[in-house]
Each structure stands twice: as C-alpha cells, then as structure tokens.
Amino acid sequence: MITIHSEVSCSQLAKVVDRLFCYGITAMVTIDKFWKFLRTVRKKSCTELPSGSIWYLTHVLPLTFMVFNLLTNFVAVMYADSSVIGRLLTVTEYTSKEDTMYCTICQCHVPLRCWHCDICNVCILTRDHHCTFSTTCVGHYNRRYFLWFLLYLSAASFYEIILIGYYTYCRVTIKFSDLMVLVPFQSVITGFHLTVGQIFVVLLTLNLIAVTMSSLLLIYHLDKVRKGLVCHEKQDSNYDFGLMRNLETVFGEKWYITWISPFIKSKLPNNGIDWQSHVDQYKTK
User: Fold this and answer.
1) Who's near 259: CB < 8 A, 6+ residues apart?
2) How many other C-beta atoms can be found within 10 angstroms of the C-beta atom of residue 141?
3) What is the pLDDT of residue 259?
4) Which DSSP string corresponds to 110-175?
5) Residue 15 or residue 263, greater confidence
6) pLDDT for the residue 106
7) Crossing angle for the helix pair 196-226 and 243-251, nearest 10 degrees?
8) Do 153 and 206 form a contact (C-beta atoms < 8 A)?
9) Of 44, 59, 47, 48, which is closest to residue 170 (Cα–Cα)?
10) What is the pTM of this model?
11) Cβ neighbours of 252 (radius 10 Å)
C-alpha cells in the first residue's frame, strides 16, 4: 500500500510541475507580447528641447542645483568634525559630575549623548550613527549635512528616473531580453557586452534603488529629528523641545534656509557638550 501511494504522489507531483512550467511559458509569452505592444504604440516623434530654450533651462537648472547640493553636502558630512578631538571637555561645564562618563580609549570625560565609535576610534558628540557611504560618524556638527544629502539624493534620483524614462520611451528600444542583465552573473556570462537597451535598464534600476533607499532613510532620520532623538535613543523625551526647537538643534537658527546650500552659516543653539544647561534653557521658555 505504501508503494502505491508513493507512485500516486510522484505522478501528481509531475503533473504539478508540468502545469507550473506551462504557466511560466505562457506568462513569458504574454509579457513579451505586451512589450512588443508598448513598442508599437509609443511615440517616436518626441520633441527635443533646443539648447538655451526656456524648457531646456527648466530641466538643466533644477538638476544642476540638486547635484550641487548633493555633492557639497556629502563632502560636508565627511569634513565637518563632530569628534571630541581638540575640544575642551571639562566637568565644570556640566550640572554634576554624574552626567559625564569616562572613555578609557580617548582618556577623557565625555558628555551626555556622546558615544565612542569603534570604527572611527573616537568619541562623537551627539553621535547619531556611523555612515558607511561617507566612512565617518554623523554627529552634532554634520547631522544637518547628512539629512540634506539624503533629501537631494532622493530628489535627484527621482528626477533622473523621469528624464531617463522619457529618453528611453522616445529614443531607445528595450527588448524583453534586455531585462536579463538584471539576473546575477548574466554580465559575466555574456562577457560584459552590454547593448544600449541593457545600459538604460541598468541606469533605471540603479536610480530606483537609490531613490528607494534614500527615501526610507530620510523618513527614518527625520522622524528621529522630529522627536528630538538620535539613533541610539528610543523613546527618551528629555531632549524633545517641540518641532521648531528640535529643528534648530539639528539645522541651526536659520534651519528654514539651510536647504539652499551647505555654505549658509546657521549657528547651532548648543555646543554638543553642555546638554543639561541646554535642556534647562528650553524647558524654562
């Protein structure tokens, strides 16, 4: 009896596999027909924007502005030092000695919201997290640049998707087989001989990944700013001074115009060291 059941099970499994295979072939044929249909209905006579025209400038100027802020904020993240190196950290700046911790590696008393980074091997004031892309810690003095970097990365990637998509729709014929470039090791097998369609598929995919990751990170970090927190803190409300005060703590007194350029000076209301007096100052207002 056991042998009969096993034979029946194997035959049923074979039928299921055959059906799945047939469904897969049918789906691929349907997608290929749909792809050919899109190529037949799209307009090949897309208008080109002449250089120097108003419409041309409406595309070039915003993109140049976004790329400028994207690159300059990224450089500012790397070079704005938020570490304790070269800063006078004295106990007299605090309400009590219990507010400080002693770092055996940096050999100094570190203030509140200051943590040691094992990668940078130094304590960071108001340490938020270690950024892998810039290979530096995001803390008190460069958090503003990091957030604007994420914003402009999202905006520029989304804008690139629109421009590349429009150009692809008008000038590039992408075949269904071009999507195979997204399969792992496919480029190695083909010897990196990419077609024009495959290049645009890769560009669109990279921009989709960039806009997705940067948008999710931006939402996460802005939520922390809204609550007056850093990544190490969960639901602590000791540093939540309200939305406007929290924005000033991160972006400075001119927080509303810092999006224009990282070169705009916006003084922070706190030095990142004496947090207790900063709390007392805002709580009394």
Assistant:
1) 69, 148, 151
2) 18
3) 95
4) E-TT-EEETTTTEEETT--EEETTTTEEE-TTTHHHHHHHHHHHHHHHHHHHHHHHHHHHHH----
5) 263
6) 83
7) 120
8) no
9) 44
10) 0.77
11) 17
What is the predicted pLDDT for the residue at 7? 45
Inter-residue contact 146 to 230 (CB < 8 Å) = no
- 48-103 pLDDT tens trace: 556 566 777 777 888 899 999 999 999 999 999 998 887 776 655 444 555 677 88
Tokens 């070169």 identify what position? Answer: 263
Is the predicted pLDDT of residue 237 greater than 60, yes or no?
A: yes
Query: 106 near 84, Cβ under 8 Å?
Result: yes
Q: Which two tokens stand for residue 4?
A: 């009969």
* Tens of pLDDT, residues 174-197: 777 777 777 766 656 655 567 788
b/e burial code for range 150-186 (CB count within 10 A of at least 16 → b):
bbbbbbbbbbbbeebeeebeeeeebeeebbebeeeee
**Mean pLDDT of all residues in 105-128:** 88
Phi-psi region of 150 (alpha: psi -120 to 50; beta: other; left: phi over 0): alpha
Mean pLDDT of 16-32: 61
Region of 160 (left: φ > 0; alpha: ψ -120 to 50; beta: rest) is alpha
What b/e sequence results for 67-99 when a residue is b if at least 16 CB atoms lie within 10 Å of its CB, and e otherwise? Answer: eebbebbbebbeebbbbbeeeebeeebbeeeee
Q: How many CB atoms lie within 10 A of CB 274?
A: 19
Instruction: Select from 250, 254, 251 the least CA-distant residue to 239.
Output: 250
How confident is the model at residue 4, as a pLDDT?
39
Tokens of 156: 């520029």
Size of the chain, expressed as the number of residues it contains: 285
On whether the CB atoms of residues 169 and 35 are closer than 8 A, the answer is: no
Give me the pLDDT at residue 278, please: 73
